[in-house]
Design brief:
Layout (H helix, E strand, L loop, with lengths): L2 H10 L13 H6 L1 H18 L10 E6 L10 E6 L2 H10 L1
Antiparallel strand pairs: 1-2
C-alpha cells in the first residue's frame, strides 16, 4: 500500500465521531504525527499481508438512537454500530 493512499484514507475518517472498541479517536490519529501514523500503517500492512482481521476488529458496539414518537416503544429507535477507528482507515483503503 502506498503512503499516499494511506494518508488519503486517514483524511477520509470523519472527526468528532465516537470511537469503537479501540477507543482511538480520529482526531488523535490525524494529529498523531509521522511516528504514530507509521505504526498504524505497519499494522494495516500486516493485516493486508495476512489477509485476516484481528479478532477485536470483528466486534462493534451497537448504540440505540432515538428517532421519534414514544420513547418506550423499541421500534422508535435505530441502531448505529461503532467500529474501531483503525478499521475505518482500512475500510477507506479498500474502497
Amino acid at each position: 500500500m502506498s503512503a499516499f493512499k494511506f494518508e488519503l484514507a486517514i483524511e477520509k475518517v470523519k472527526r468528532h465521531r465516537s470511537p469503537g472498541t479501540d477507543q482511538i479517536q480520529a482526531e488523535l490519529i490525524k494529529a498523531g504525527g509521522k511516528t504514530f501514523r507509521s505504526e498504524i500503517c505497519i499494522l494495516i500492512n500486516s493485516i493486508l499481508n495476512k489477509e485476516e482481521f484481528p479478532e477485536k476488529w470483528k466486534v462493534s458496539i451497537i448504540i440505540p438512537i432515538y428517532k421519534e414518537n414514544e420513547k418506550t416503544d423499541c421500534s422508535n429507535y435505530r441502531g448505529i454500530s461503532l467500529f474501531p477507528t483503525t478499521y475505518k482507515i482500512l475500510s477507506n483503503i479498500l474502497r
